[in-house]
Amino acid sequence: MKKEQIEKIVHDDGIGMSLIVKTVARMMIAVILLFGFYIIIYGHLTPGGGFAGGVILAIAYTLMMLALSRKIALEKFSDFWASFWDNIGMLSFIVIGFIGLSVGYFLYNFLWHGEPFHLISAGIIPLANISIGIKVGACLYAIFIGLSIYGRVIVKEEEE
Amino acid sequence: MALFIVILILMIAGSVVAVEIKNMLSAVIAAGIVGFGVSVMFLFLKAPDIAITQVIVEVLSLIILIRITTNADNEAIEKKIDNFANIVGLIFVGLFVAFCFWAFVDMTAFGTPIMRVSQHYLSAGLEETGAANMVAAVILDYRAYDTLGEAVVIFTSILGAFVILRSRGKKKLTEKDMEKVGIPE
Fold it and tell me: How many CA atoms lie within 13 A of B98 on its CB side?
C-alpha cells in the first residue's frame, strides 16, 4: 500500500477510530514493535524473553487493526503471512533441537557460550528466543484475525 | 504480606463483581482486575519475567474479550435459585477446600522453597549455559523440552482455531470435492 493511500485512510472519518487515535497509533506502533524486538533479543540478559516479546509484537499489529483499519492491517500483515511466520517459528525451534541432536542430545546447547552479560552469548538461547518470539507473535495475531474478521473477509471475497 | 492480603481481597471482589454484574463490558473489565492483581503479586515476589508476561497477555486477552463482547448479545440470564444445585456445589467446594488443607499442611512455609535442584541451577547455571537471565537459562536450556511442549500446544490450538473459525466462510461442496474426498453418493 502506498503512502498516499494510508494518508487518505487516516484522514477519512468513516474508517477506523478518530483522527487523534489514528495519528497517535501510527506513531506508537513503531515504538511498540521496537520494544517487542528488544524484549526478544535481550531475553537471555534481562527479564522477558520470547513469549513476552512475541505478545508485544502481536499487540502492535492488533493496535493497527483496531485503530487504523482492518484493511491496512491485513495489507501490512495478512492472515497467510501470519500463518507462514507461525510455521517458520515452530520449525526453526525444532530444527535447532535436531542440530543439537546431531552433536549431543536433543536441544543441546551446541554453540559457543561466549562471555556472560554480552549480547552474543549463551549459545542457542537467543536463537530459540527469536524463534519462539516470531511464533508467538504471529500466532496471537492470527487468533485475533480469526476471532474478529475471518468469516466476514472470506464471505466478502466470494461475493466479489 | 499486608499488601498481598489487600491485593487478594481486591481480586476476590473483582471476580465476584465479574460474576454478578449484568453488563458484559463491565464484567470483562472486572475480570481484568484479577489478572493485573496477579501480575502485581508476581512483581513483589521478585519474578519480573512472569509479571511482564502476565500483564501483556492480560492486555491482549482483555482486548479480544472486549472486541467480542461489544458485539455479542448483552442480555443477562434470568436468575433461578436451584437449592439442590447450591447445596451440592457447597458440599463439593467444602470437600475441595478440606483436601487442599490436608495436602498443603505438609508443605514448607511460604518463601522457603526446597532448593535441591534449583540450588544447582543458581550456582552452576551461568557457567553451564552462559545466560545472565537464569529464567531464560532454565526454560530454554535445562527445561527446553517443556518450552517445546508449550510451543506445540499454542501451535495446535491456533490450527484448531483456524479450522473452527473458517467454517462460516467455507465454500460449498461440489461434485469435484466429493470425488477428491471419496464421499459415496
Answer: 6
The residue of chain B nearest to residue A107, with distances taken between CA atoms, is: B144
> Structurally, how many domains does chain A consist of?
1
Q: What is the DSSP string of A39-101?
A: HHHTTTTSS--HHHHHHHHHHHHHHIIIII-HHHHHHHS-HHHHHHHHHHHHHHHHHHHHHHH
Residues 6+ apart with CB under 8 A from B161: A142, A143, A146, A147
Query: What's the grid cell of residue B17?
Result: 463483581
**Along the 185 residues of chain B, how does pLDDT read in single tens digits?**
788 899 999 999 999 998 888 788 888 889 889 989 999 998 888 888 889 989 998 998 888 888 777 766 556 566 677 888 889 999 999 999 999 999 888 888 877 888 888 888 888 888 877 788 888 888 888 888 888 898 899 889 888 887 777 655 566 666 666 666 665 55
Structural domain for A13, as ranges: 3-159
Give the chain B residue nearest A143 (alpha carbons): B158
The answer to whether residues A65 and A17 touch, using CB atoms and an 8 Å cutoff, is no
Give the distance, in angstroms, between the CA of residue A112 and the centroid of all CA atoms in the same chain: 28
Q: Which of A51, A115, A154 sits opposite B53 (nearest CB)?
A: A51
Please tell me the distance from the alpha carbon of residue B130 to that of residue A109, in angstroms, as a whole number.
10
Residues 6+ apart with CB under 8 A from A88: A134, A135
Q: Do A116 and B68 touch (CB under 8 A)?
A: no
* Alpha-carbon gap, residue B156 to B97, rounded angstroms: 34
Give whole-number Cα distances, B56 to A56, A92, A155, B53, in Å.
Answer: 7, 24, 32, 5
Share in percent of chain A as helix, strand, coil (round to 5): 70, 0, 30
Whole-angstrom distance, CA of residue A7 vs CA of residue A72: 11
ipTM exceeding 0.90? no
